[in-house]
Amino acid sequence: SLRGPEIGARDLAAREGPAERTARHRQARPHPIRRFLPLTLALTLFLTTLAPGFAAEPAWIERRVGALGVPLPAGAGWVQTQRDGGIWVASRVRRTVAGDAQFLYLALIEGQKVSAAFADWSPDRLAAQYLDWAVEDLTEDGVETGAYALTIRDRSAETHGTHTLYVLRVLKDYVDPWHPDLRLEAQELYLVIPPDFATNRTFYKILFTADCFFDGCIASDLDLSALHPLLDRLRDYSVPSM
Question: Could you tell me which residues are beta bridge partners of residue 166?
């Protein structure tokens, strides 16, 4: 069995590769979007016909993942789907007047169950370890394979409403993309660690991505601000309402 959480993050990372961590800690890769992004992109690009622009104000429909309620954008070109494991995804394509895809935006929510060894870890410690693994995985998946150059733009804790969210913001500059027109991708990964984590050993991941598919795209073009309002509207159903 896994030794207790007195094992430090550096020791764990040195002993085990990503596959072993997945098996031993039930720790899925921090960016589950990798598992089905090509399919999502194909469905969104070819089955969804949208007007150009990203300015329309979406409606918000709350979706439950475990004990967390998250309002996801709907309408105004947004398409919501539920994946295996209770994962919810909202996606939108921004097109030119000619109908060519320029940007793909995604918001994803997933619950993450971890082993009992982590039950008494503080939220700060758990988030630090998980984000360390996220950076490792991004590096192994893309930088070491030559797929993209990676820039860590921000790693911090933020307060949204009554929740402390642990965030990792990165930029991928593609060298050998999985889609021939893909140029840049911005990712924002937020961790939500609920008050009942010690009991249920489940925390939540909210992932935003923006991808651009044209030459000359720069980082400032990848605007995820339209998704930020949902961070202030998270609802924790593990806490009884008054």
Answer: 157, 191
| 95-121 per-residue burial string, b: 16 or more CB within 10 A, e: under 16 | beeeeebbbbbbbbbbbbebeebbeeb
Tokens of 182: 């893909």
Nearest to 69 by CA among 228, 204, 225, 224: 204
CA gap 39, 42 in Å, rounded: 5
Q: Mean pLDDT check: name the lowest of 19-28, 46-55, 180-189, 228-237.
A: 19-28
- The CATH class given to the 9-236 domain equals alpha beta
Interval 136-168: pLDDT, tens: 999 999 999 999 999 999 999 999 988 999 999
Closest CA to 4 of 143, 106, 121, 124: 121
What is the pTM for the complete model shown?
A: 0.79
| C-alpha to C-alpha distance for 56 and 148, rounded to whole angstroms | 32
Cβ contacts of residue 13 below 8 Å, gap of 6+? 132, 133, 136
Alpha-carbon distance 30 to 20, whole Å?
15
pLDDT tier at 4, thresholds 50, 70, 90: very low
